[in-house]
Specification:
The structure holds two protein chains of two kinds. Chain A is an all-beta fold. Chain A is 0% helix and 62% strand. Chain A is built from no helices and eleven strands. In chain A, strand 7 and strand 8 form a beta hairpin. Chain B is mainly beta. Helices cover 0% and strands 50% of the residues of chain B. Classes of the chains: A mainly beta, B mainly beta.
């Protein structure tokens, strides 16, 4: 089976940096995804890591350590519009199913 | 990337009735999935929609309650049968294409309220 853990809520200040952690336990791993979801909207794809290391994409970066079952999403130069839920999801190797964690609700304050 | 549309966007239904949700993708995709999202919660996978064969259901979800069709590579339907208020949720269609680094995209969702 799969077990994915994230903090439930986080707060940060506009212009700051925030790191959202995700730990997972899985019987078969084929990549880790981060999605952003604003209230009332569908999740939008942010990043995909299948190998260890850091992937940078503008203000957002995602890190993966497969040996530790650990990932984080790093958001820099926070803006008010970054207030959203951030979902960590793991792809199962055998079935290609994407299993989601509980999500982290981030609130950015001025 | 793939663009996914869903119909209807929202509906209010009476207990005991059924609703069919349609999902259309603008390009051929390898995998299609149906998720449910309760208010304030994360996404729960209902099933994988398989083209031309029966869907693969997750634990806790059964075909009689959530029949799924996928007649071709770009279209799928999910029916919520014999609805009860506990079925009130957002239902999301999702698709994956192996031509784009296995990225997975989501439709806008169908907000269902059962009274």
């Amino acid at each position: 089976g799969q077990n994915i853990d994230q903090p439930t809520e986080m707060t940060a200040t506009e212009g700051a940096i925030v790191q959202i952690n995700c730990t997972y336990q899985t019987s078969g791993f084929n990549g880790l995804f981060w999605y952003q979801q604003h209230a009332g909207e569908a999740p939008t794809f942010l990043s995909y890591n299948v190998l260890d290391g850091l992937e940078e994409k503008g203000r957002f970066s995602s890190f993966l350590s497969r040996s530790k079952g650990y990932s984080y999403l790093l958001l820099k130069e926070l803006q008010m519009k970054d207030s959203a839920s951030y979902l960590c999801a793991v792809r199962d190797r055998g079935t290609d199913k994407l299993i989601f964690g509980t999500g982290t609700r981030l609130q950015v304050f001025p | 990337s793939a663009v996914i549309s869903q119909k209807p966007s929202r509906d209010i239904c009476q207990r005991g009735t059924s609703l069919t949700i349609q999902c259309q993708v603008d390009s051929q995709v390898t995998m299609m999935f149906w998720y449910r999202q309760q208010p304030g919660q994360s996404l729960t996978l209902i099933a994988t929609a398989n083209q031309g064969s029966e869907a693969t259901y997750e634990s806790g979800f059964v075909i009689d309650k959530f029949p799924i069709s996928r007649p071709n590579l770009t279209f799928s339907t999910l029916t919520v049968s014999n609805m009860s208020p506990e079925d009130s949720s957002i239902y999301l269609c999702s698709a994956m294409t192996t031509t784009s680094s296995y990225e997975q995209y989501f439709g806008p969702g169908t907000r269902l309220t059962v009274t």
